[in-house]
UniProtKB/TrEMBL annotation, chains A, B:
<protein>
    <submittedName>
        <fullName>NtaA/SnaA/SoxA family monooxygenase</fullName>
        <ecNumber>1.14.-.-</ecNumber>
    </submittedName>
</protein>
<dbReference type="Pfam" id="PF00296">
    <property type="entry name" value="Bac_luciferase"/>
</dbReference>
<feature type="binding site">
    <location>
        <position position="59"/>
    </location>
    <ligand>
        <name>FMN</name>
    </ligand>
</feature>
<keyword id="KW-0285">Flavoprotein</keyword>
<dbReference type="InterPro" id="IPR036661">
    <property type="entry name" value="Luciferase-like_sf"/>
</dbReference>
<feature type="binding site">
    <location>
        <position position="221"/>
    </location>
    <ligand>
        <name>FMN</name>
    </ligand>
</feature>
<dbReference type="GO" id="GO:0016705">
    <property type="term" value="F:oxidoreductase activity, acting on paired donors, with incorporation or reduction of molecular oxygen"/>
</dbReference>
<keyword id="KW-0288">FMN</keyword>
<comment type="similarity">
    <text>Belongs to the NtaA/SnaA/DszA monooxygenase family.</text>
</comment>
<keyword id="KW-0560">Oxidoreductase</keyword>
<feature type="binding site">
    <location>
        <position position="96"/>
    </location>
    <ligand>
        <name>FMN</name>
    </ligand>
</feature>
<dbReference type="InterPro" id="IPR011251">
    <property type="entry name" value="Luciferase-like_dom"/>
</dbReference>
<dbReference type="GO" id="GO:0004497">
    <property type="term" value="F:monooxygenase activity"/>
</dbReference>
<feature type="binding site">
    <location>
        <position position="150"/>
    </location>
    <ligand>
        <name>FMN</name>
    </ligand>
</feature>
<dbReference type="InterPro" id="IPR051260">
    <property type="entry name" value="Diverse_substr_monoxygenases"/>
</dbReference>
<keyword id="KW-0503">Monooxygenase</keyword>
<dbReference type="InterPro" id="IPR016215">
    <property type="entry name" value="NTA_MOA"/>
</dbReference>
Length: 439, 439
């Protein structure tokens, strides 16, 4: 048996994200869960009791009245995670911050602060913001074009990581006998002048026990994958099938290798939906029940528009061929999901109604069955190197409880999942090395 | 006796701010206090046990090797406060964020998140950033000029407060029976287009139990005072004497009245240093001892330069007349302290050495004596309407303990200070009304 171990993250859907408009109807879920700190603390502690590597907080900064419930009213990720940091001891705390609308100096400070407060458990999910409407909340008429977004992202992360190296590890002497607080020779300004950012530094924060926060990145497009392979410690993705998972896994590791990185130091962690039942049949029944309860066609149509920059599809005839205007948008845009949908609509001659229905199959991998079935399938994906672990979508509270209480022990019996935390920092738990510091 | 009650804040110096370079030598203080979350939690709980209204976190984003120890290595205020929010139940949480280098949408979200996490205890200390070097960490060669800084500040606060009104109080229906999550008619975009900012909104966060965070503002200049009177719920200041305190207090309340505000809804809370001894003489001895231990002339000279934009005064002859170059700087700059120092240097014909020594008297009001003396003097200032309360500088841990254990009970006996928290939010405790919301 390899010592390679499955990693687990908990991605909270709050009261209901995309495709989960009606999650809040579940009476086990506080109806204000997305702004309820007590609920978040409870989820984080449940995940920690099940030895999860991390809790993963997604984000958005733009709403319309049609946005999913969780989007309308949600705590800012890092503010939330700092409260979780002092409410937990082991679990990693990964927050989403966009490189498009945050100053690198502020991002560096906030994440480094979370890293110190949590004693080395912070992670940053680097995004560039997909919703075009976000731009209007930050003084811009339009979002940055695709190349600029990715160019900014790469330089932004480079600046932030540079600021995280402002102080050598032994810079703070704090010797009361000699009155020497720190060694000025071990403080380094950054003096970065790049295409998008200019930051002098140094940062006013020492390094944490894990050296610096762990970098997470998602992105399905060519540029997204290349960025992930270049900068990410962990790549977050969707893997609809074992085979697609394996192909993506191989590709990311190869890209990392080509960039001169150790492929074992770039982990692939797709999102996963889990439905656990007493039997496989009961689990499938549960899945159907939740999906049916969850989604009116009207909501699905509205959300379908999200992949097209919140395009209003209600203006079209549902059973006519897929609208030409939307095809045109997908061709010229950077929305990978829109491209994928329209490719299929064209090749299969789908109507709008059919395309909306088909798009609901573009979900992350679903693990549906008895606890035994789910544990076996997850182990299979892990051992076949389709994944290094899963970011479990936390939707219905009862389902999450079944996962932690029934599936996790079976993963442990199979020898693919830990029985205790191997370390005290997120890097140690994920098996990632501490980044070198200036010497 | 009036029901008007003294307010108390705790302003932490961490391991040592300006004029406190050697605070960290105190063996009672953890030498890494400025990044030690356990220490901050301990201080917040001590202050809460003494029924303080708030803990107040100052900030800076620019360091040089000569910066005071606390500046070199300090947690970002809001990240810190969120951890304190779930570690306390009553005390207000006031964080410093600059309007010069933060997007209003991000400020609105982060403070509203802290306000919800703390169940209505957040406050924002609005600053425009004084250190010219800060600009270099945010892609600018120079800091905004004085008028721009204050223009931005006023518009920034207006945008943030507008975003905090995105949702009416009863917008979230969350009725499971009817499946109705919210009322779209009670969601309002901002559509702000101003001189400095353009923000569409709405904010993706509901209001907190206190309506919106409390606004704090400091600023000694003409523009600073006018801004404070216009936007602040609480004005933070320095009051070197009872008479100066009374004059400032009167002025702020009059300015507020002229701007159409209720003067009782604008509180004046100067910083205060406290030295408590067994007798007045012993307290004065303690003060002398701490000040002497605290400050070499070299450090004082370096810090003196801070009021002149970190001008290097070590290049001048100490006993020659005050340098003409520095006089010129003060004349053309917006540094109130520099102006005050140079006015005095000119009128009294001071040498540089004498000016440095004189500047050390520009400290906040110091309350030095036995617990009885300190309590009597604070009550006197309060009853003479020189202050509505004090922001106590938390330096030496032993001194803070004496203040909470010995002075606070005497203030209670005098009837000027509460025996229990009057409410559950910061606004309630400060006696501030909940701001009206859109209807």
């Amino acid at each position: 048996m390899s010592t390679r171990q499955l990693k687990l993250g908990a991605l909270t859907m709050g009261v209901g994200g995309p495709g989960r408009h009606n999650l809040w109807l579940d009476p086990e879920l506080p109806a204000d869960a997305s702004v309820n700190i007590d609920w978040y603390i409870d989820i984080a502690r449940q995940a920690e009791a099940a030895l999860f590597d991390l809790i993963f907080i997604v984000d958005s900064q733009f709403i319309t009245p049609g946005s999913p419930p969780h989007y309308l009213n949600r705590l800012e990720p890092l503010t939330l995670l700092s409260a979780l940091a002092v409410s937990t001891r082991h679990i990693g705390l990964v927050g989403t911050l966009t490189t498009s609308y945050n100053e690198p100096f502020n991002v560096a400070r906030r994440l480094a602060s979370l890293d110190l407060i949590s004693k080395g458990r912070a992670g940053w999910n680097v995004v560039t913001s997909g919703d075009a409407g976000t731009a209007g909340n930050y003084g811009r008429d339009e979002h940055y074009d695709y190349d600029t977004r990715y160019g900014r992202a790469r330089e932004h992360v480079q600046v932030v990581q540079g600021l995280w190296q402002s102080w050598e590890d032994d810079a703070f002497v704090r010797d009361r006998a000699s009155g020497r607080y720190f060694d000025p020779a071990k403080l380094h300004a950054l003096n970065h002048k790049g295409e998008h950012f200019s930051v002098v530094g140094p940062l006013n924060l020492q390094r944490s026990p894990q050296g610096q926060p762990v970098i997470f990145q998602a992105g399905d497009s060519e540029q997204g994958r290349e960025l992930g392979a270049a900068i990410a410690d962990v790549v977050f993705t969707h893997a609809p099938s074992l085979e697609q998972g394996q192909a993506f896994y191989r590709e990311i590791k190869e890209r990392a290798l080509r960039q001169g990185r150790d492929p074992e130091q770039v982990l692939v962690l797709p999102g996963a939906e889990v439905f656990v039942g007493d039997s496989d049949e009961q689990a499938r029944e549960l899945e159907r029940h939740y999906h049916a309860a969850d989604h009116s066609f009207e909501q699905a149509l509205l959300e379908f528009g999200r992949s097209f920059g919140w395009h209003d599809f209600s203006q079209y005839e549902l059973d006519a061929p897929f609208p030409a205007q939307a095809l045109e948008f997908a061709r010229s845009s950077f929305f990978t999901v829109a491209k994928r949908i329209t490719d299929r609509a064209v090749s299969e001659g789908l109507s709008l109604r059919q395309a909306v229905q088909a798009s609901r199959q573009l979900r992350p991998g679903a693990f549906v069955g008895s606890a035994e079935t789910v544990a076996a399938k997850m182990s299979e994906w892990f051992e076949a190197r389709a994944v290094d672990g899963f970011n479990i979508y936390i939707g219905h509270p009862g389902q999450f409880r079944r996962f932690t209480e029934e599936v996790v022990p079976l993963l442990q019996e199979r020898g693919v999942y830990r029985r205790e935390y191997p370390g005290s920092t997120l890097r140690e738990n994920l098996g990632l090395r501490i980044p070198r510091n200036l010497r």
